[in-house]
Structure formats: structure tokens, C-alpha cells
Amino acid sequence: MSDDEQRDQSQSRGPAQGRAQAPGEGNGRAGGNGKGEADQSAGSAGSAAPTEPTPGPRPEPIRFFGTTWVDHDNGYAARRAAVAVGALVAAVAGAYLLRLAYEGLEIGNVGPFLSISVVILFAIASAIAFAKTWESFGRRVAPSSDEAALKGLKAIGFIGSLIAYFLRCLVEAPGEKLHRVEYERAVAEFTRRRSSRTGNPAARRPKRKK
Predict the structure, then answer these.
(1) DSSP H/E element including 117
(2) Which tops the pLDDT comparison, 114 or 38?
(3) DSSP letter, residue 110
(4) What sign has the CA pseudo-torsion 103, 107, 110, 111?
(5) What is the rounded distance in angstroms from the CA atom of residue 33 to the CA atom of residue 195?
(6) Among residues 180, 174, 172, 179, which one has the least CA distance to residue 77?
(7) Close Cβ partners of 66 (under 8 Å, ≥ 6 residues apart)
(8) What are 99-118's pLDDT values in tens digits?
(9) pTM attached to this predicted model
(10) DSSP string spanning 49-75?
(11) Closest C-alpha among 112, 201, 98, 206 to residue 157
């Protein structure tokens, strides 16, 4: 066989071998794509699983405390201390400002009657604000015209409200006892309704056959 004939045969076998390897490579790519699609489908199925909320009543959050009062966690004690210290500092600062205002009245020489009247007004307003704020920690105050009229007086006697917050934080979160009683009552009522709906299947009356 001549050299030209051997060269022609080698050229004819080269493309055939290249084409024989192509299906193998194609199968490898197909296997990789199938695995990737399976992983994506498994991941999407895992992420698509919804998280159902727990049925039942939820605790009402308290200002500055959120829902930490339920189990006394997530910095409950630190929040109580911070609110107590903050209320006390604010009350002292408010008293100092009132003292400066009183000294300003004396410097202005407005007379003893007006000065004494201002002191009595702030003392009464502070006492009323303290009583109303302390009362709100133990019971729900129904909205009325009297409460709306007392808002201005409570704003004037803000020192009384701050002192009430300070004293209450020494015992518990302000309003914690009221919220706990209401929450436990709601949970008990929900449990009773749920048990009455499910009941004992053996005690149910059998349905009449038509």
C-alpha cells in the first residue's frame, strides 16, 4: 500500500472517532444537568414549606417591654432597671426645671400669691397624674369625656406619672399584672372552646341514616 493510500485511510478514520466520542460527552452533560435540576427542585420544595402560626391568643405588648413580660426573658430585668432609672432621672430633671421656673417668678417679682398658686397647681396636677397612672396599671380605663379633660392636667403633672412608673418598675413591668390576667383568661377561654369543639368522639351522637 502506498503512502498516499495510508494517509487517506487515516484521515477517514479521524472524523469517525471524533463522532464516536461525542455521544459520551453528551451523556456526561446530561447526567450533570439532571443532578442540578434534582437539587434545585429539592431546594425549592424545602423552601416552599409554609410555617403555620400557632393558633390561640397572643400576648399584648407593653410599652418599653414588648412581650418579654410573659416569660421574663430577652432582657426583661434589664428593661425594668432601665425604665426605672430613666423615669427617676426624668422626674428629677422635671423638678429641677420647675424650680428654675419658680425662681424666675420670684425674680420677676410677680407677688407671693401667684407664686404659691403655681406651686399648688403643679402639686395637685402631679398628685392626680400619679393616681391616674397608677390606676391604669391595674385596670382598663374606659374612654370618657372626663379622661379626655384630664389629659392636660396629667401633662402638667408629668412628674407624678414618672414617679408612678419608677415605683411600679421596682415590682414588675408597668401593667404586667393586668396583661397577665387578661392573657391567661383568653388562653383558658380558647382552650375551653377548642376542647368543646373537638370533644370525645365516642360521646358524639351517631348520625341518623336517611
Answers:
(1) helix 112-136
(2) 114
(3) -
(4) positive
(5) 52
(6) 172
(7) 74
(8) 998 888 888 777 788 888 88
(9) 0.65
(10) ---PPPPS--PPPBTTTBTTTTTT-SS
(11) 98
Residue with cell 413591668: 173
**Cell 418579654 belongs to residue:** 68
Cβ burial of 182 (10 Å; 0-12, 13-18, 19+) is middle
Per the document, the length of the chain is: 210
The closest alpha carbon to 169, from 84, 66, 87, belongs to: 84
Measuring CA to CA, which residue among 161, 92, 103 is closest to residue 128?
Answer: 161
Q: Closest Cα partner for 125 from 85, 168, 163?
A: 163
Report which DSSP code applies to 167. Answer: H
Helix 158-169 × helix 76-107 angle, to 10°? 150
The amino acid sitting at 70 is: V
- Integer Cα distance of 67 and 53 in angstroms: 17
CA dist 135 and 145 (Å) reads 17
For residues 114 and 105, is the Cβ–Cβ distance under 8 A? yes
